[in-house]
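Figure 6 in text form: structure in, sequence out.
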């Protein structure tokens, strides 16, 4: 045990404000009794006037608390003796992951420990497994108390950035969700890949006597305190009067105590769960699911149309195909016609009347909401006309399944040309054209279409290639057709951000710049031929693609990044350097440093050099938090990037 002495201010019920001393214990290692590990003890400096009465009252309340914890199978108890001269109000709380016997054991420990405050009129002890406090007046609704602390375990020298990012996401989500959960407690875990630490564990808890708002403000303080630990320490606690937060790289609760907090991340708490989707998310090969975000603010320019009018007759609707015809076109959805499959349904090649080849997507979305919104969303998508965006040719909403009819791309996806059977076969000009076309397609979706459409899932498998190897972006977002309960972090984030912008992956903060980021990652892949998600072998000095790109760029050796299969005679070094710089600009954080997609188009078309060279800023979780506090902490967008675990093979 190491101990730290410090002073803080104590606001007693008496009018004086007395300074007093408390001791913080920080465990050096996991003990055999981890739940009774003492974190903090503090005693008021004012003593009771009548020790015998005080002692009798204290004993009576403690006995009552112990009885409640033992017999009522509860984790939380209060008790008071307040009808005589030495009033005592007591509150005890165990972490909800404990068994009743463990809870009572922890309470006994806390009881023994708090006795060292002798006749002090107020005291509290915080252990890993429980919390005990008494005062001379009622404090049950108190949220924060000066002296609240973040307690960090031992510093670790090993690289912790991935772990830190995962933990920060968990803690941020806990601070949002816990106040909305009945009982004010949640335990969660998330996988951490690419490090020795394979899982992150975290909990948050508030005193049951708080209001949801009180719980929220307490956890905000606790979260701010505990974050001082997350950068290079594998365990930490945030301790305050009304709440407790903890994370660790080691398990401190049973896995079966975790809950899915995703439904609580959105205002309004637990929402109805979307049907079906969860189980099939990991599947491969989806043709369409452009994720649309109809941003609720209107643009000043006249191309912006209020969302309501989308329901009206201002837009031409898609062509309605008959179910029977599409069934025939795809030979009754025969396996040999299948182009791919994924979370939102299978895609089939079909030949419709007139002889045109199309791709038919069978939407595996059964929810009522999906059907309700289908027509509106499909109408929005079907009016997107751009040479770098896949066309929606029609749909079928009358049959037993929702079907989308899409442009068919015989060359398949960029994925195939970067990593699949056609690996290494794209020359520089083709790669450049793909980069340019993607930029134009995204600029159109963001800024030129009458509603802003954020794709949210830009990656090589969603970039289809036409006969001339011009790119067409697939995957229109049917955001409203998607289930709303997919977490943006715990199930898919897995420690590497991949194509997903950090502020979106961690906080669900959505803007067009989310696409700018993914675009930058794909550009790096096109230039290097390496996947951004490839897990580096750190023992031989490998790094994630983005990290390597920054390091090479900062050392002015970015040409070393270029794909070996490219013939150096095909490209100008200046062009490649510029494109790498544009890609890095696109991946900068905070989002304000990223260019808009139309700025990217301008940079690409301009022969001059990039004016403001990109600068690396390490993922600054502080920035992200501030942004989320200002805007989105209470309204997590539909962050169904989960659906992004898909592959598109328009074979
Ligand atoms: C209260 O309990 C403590 C510890 O259990 C004991 O030492 C003390 O004598 C008790 N005081 C009274 C007045 O019962
Ligand atoms: C992983 O563990 C090994 C030995 O246990 C250690 O040498 C290595 O530095 C660790 N790597 C990281 C990233 O912590
Ligand atoms: C949870 O896991 C623990 C140990 O892993 C086990 O003893 C306990 O029975 C489990 N509880 C439930 C409800 O499955």
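Output sequence:
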């Amino acid at each position: 045990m190491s101990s730290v002495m410090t002073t803080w201010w104590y606001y007693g019920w008496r009018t004086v404000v007395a300074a007093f001393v408390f001791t913080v214990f920080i465990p050096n290692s996991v003990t055999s009794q981890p739940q009774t590990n003492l974190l903090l003890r503090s005693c008021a400096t004012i003593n009771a006037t009548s020790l015998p009465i005080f002692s009798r009252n204290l004993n009576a309340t403690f006995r009552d608390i112990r009885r409640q914890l033992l017999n009522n199978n509860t984790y939380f108890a209060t008790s008071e003796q307040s009808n005589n001269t030495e009033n005592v109000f007591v509150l005890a709380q165990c972490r909800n992951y404990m068994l009743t016997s463990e809870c009572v054991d922890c309470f006994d420990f806390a009881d023994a420990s708090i006795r060292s405050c002798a006749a002090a009129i107020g005291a509290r002890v915080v252990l890993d497994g429980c919390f005990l406090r008494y005062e001379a007046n009622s404090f049950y609704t108190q949220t924060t108390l000066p002296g609240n602390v973040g307690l960090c375990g031992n510093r670790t020298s090993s690289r912790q950035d991935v772990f830190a990012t995962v933990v920060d996401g968990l803690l941020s989500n806990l601070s949002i969700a816990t106040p909305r959960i009945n009982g004010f407690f949640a335990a969660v875990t998330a996988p951490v890949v690419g490090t020795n630490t394979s899982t992150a564990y975290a909990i948050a808890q508030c005193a049951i006597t708080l209001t949801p708002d009180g719980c929220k403000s307490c956890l905000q303080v606790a979260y701010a305190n505990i974050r001082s630990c997350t950068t290079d320490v594998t365990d930490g606690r945030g301790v305050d009067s009304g709440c407790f937060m903890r994370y660790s790289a080691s398990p401190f609760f049973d896995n079966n105590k975790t809950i899915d907090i995703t439904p609580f991340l959105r205002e309004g708490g637990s929402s109805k769960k979307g049907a079906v989707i969860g189980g099939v998310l990991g599947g491969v090969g989806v043709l369409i699911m452009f994720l649309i975000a109809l941003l609720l603010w209107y643009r000043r320019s006249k191309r912006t149309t209020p969302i309501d009018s989308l329901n009206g007759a201002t837009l031409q609707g898609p062509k309605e195909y008959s179910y029977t015809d599409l069934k025939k076109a795809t030979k009754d959805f025969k396996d040999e016609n299948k182009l791919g499959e994924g979370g939102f349904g299978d895609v089939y090649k079909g030949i419709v009347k007139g002889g045109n080849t199309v791709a038919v997507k069978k939407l595996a979305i059964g929810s009522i909401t999906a059907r309700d919104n289908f027509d509106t969303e499909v109408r929005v998508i079907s009016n997107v006309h751009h040479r770098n965006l896949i066309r929606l040719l029609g749909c079928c909403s009358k049959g037993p399944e929702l079907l989308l009819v899409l442009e068919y791309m015989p060359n398949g996806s960029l994925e195939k040309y970067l990593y699949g059977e056609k690996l290494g076969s794209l020359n520089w000009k083709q790669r450049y054209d793909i980069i340019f076309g993607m930029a134009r397609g995204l600029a159109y979706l963001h800024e030129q279409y009458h509603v802003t459409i954020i794709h949210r899932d830009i990656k090589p498998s969603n970039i289809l290639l036409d006969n001339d190897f011009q790119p067409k972006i697939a995957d229109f977002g049917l955001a409203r057709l998607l289930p709303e309960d997919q977490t943006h972090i715990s199930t898919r984030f897995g420690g590497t951000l991949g194509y997903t912008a950090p502020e979106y992956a961690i906080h669900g903060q959505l803007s067009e710049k989310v696409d700018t980021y993914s675009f930058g990652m794909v550009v790096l892949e096109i230039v290097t031929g390496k996947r951004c998600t490839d897990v580096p072998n750190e023992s031989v000095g490998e790094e994630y693609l983005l990290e390597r790109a920054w390091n090479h760029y900062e050392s002015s050796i970015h040409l070393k990044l270029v794909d070996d299969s490219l013939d150096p005679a095909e490209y100008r070094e200046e062009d490649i350097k510029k494109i790498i710089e544009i890609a890095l600009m696109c991946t900068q954080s905070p989002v304000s440093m990223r260019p808009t997609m139309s700025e990217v188009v301008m940079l690409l078309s301009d022969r001059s050099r990039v004016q403001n060279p990109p600068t690396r800023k390490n993922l600054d979780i502080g920035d992200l938090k501030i942004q989320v506090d200002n805007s989105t902490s209470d309204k997590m967008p539909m962050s169904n990037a989960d659906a992004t675990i898909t592959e598109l093979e328009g074979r």
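Caption detail: The two ends are 63 Å apart (CA to CA).
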